[in-house]
Amino acid sequence: MDRAEPLLREYLILSRGGQGGVTASRILATAAVLEGKYAQAIPQFGAERRGAIVRSYLRISDEPIKRHSRVKQPVGVSVFSARILELMDLNSIAPTAKRVLVNSSKPVHLGDREVFYVDATSIALELNLVIAGWPVVNTAMAAAMAKVFEIASLDSILEAMKNFFHGKLLEANLEAARRAWDRVRKA
């Protein structure tokens, strides 16, 4: 009996310093592990300042992951600020990504890619998830990513978040995840 090829999926997260892209990748990796998958959350940044573009990578597999390099062929991209799309060419940095999630209040169109959007910024502002004047959209975007890219269930995302937040901050982030899960739409 032939054994099926293991499912390995890679994702790219494009965020700005301070938005929580690295934490979002860690939450998603934790949620995937809770569901019996293997995962790697791989940040790529140096001495970036708040507002600079930060790349984070996520790798999910049904079997142990042998790769430890940066993600080169993502199947999906999550863009934490629609303005990043004005500065980066997805065709050159992620030509294999057929599905894109964008933090935007309105639909975004990116050629023949399947695009989804959620207004994670408004969700963060509604729940006062703001640090130094910047809305922190990580938990809303993590939940939307989990749904759009079928990484994990909402329950697993909520459970994973308990490893990163506590008290009132946890409650606000749990609510951000629930709202984003419900509000994410296809463009």
From the structure above, extract its key features.
187 residues, 7-stranded mixed β-sheet, alpha/beta, two-stranded antiparallel ribbon, Pyruvate-ferredoxin Oxidoreductase, domain 3, globular
Blueprint (SSEs and pairs):
Elements: E1 8-16, H1 21-34, E2 38-44, E3 53-61, E4 76-79, H2 84-87, H3 90-93, E5 99-103, E6 114-118, H4 120-126, E7 130-131, E8 134-135, H5 138-148, H6 154-161, H7 167-183, E9 185-186
Parallel strand pairs: 1-4, 4-5, 5-6
Antiparallel strand pairs: 1-3, 2-3, 6-9, 7-8
Structural class: alpha/beta
CATH architecture: 3-Layer(aba) Sandwich
CATH superfamily: Pyruvate-ferredoxin oxidoreductase, PFOR, domain III
The oligomeric status of these chains comes to single chain
Point out poorly predicted stretches. Answer: none
Shape: globular
CATH class: Alpha Beta
CATH topology name: Pyruvate-ferredoxin Oxidoreductase, domain 3
Q: Let me know the average pLDDT.
A: 92
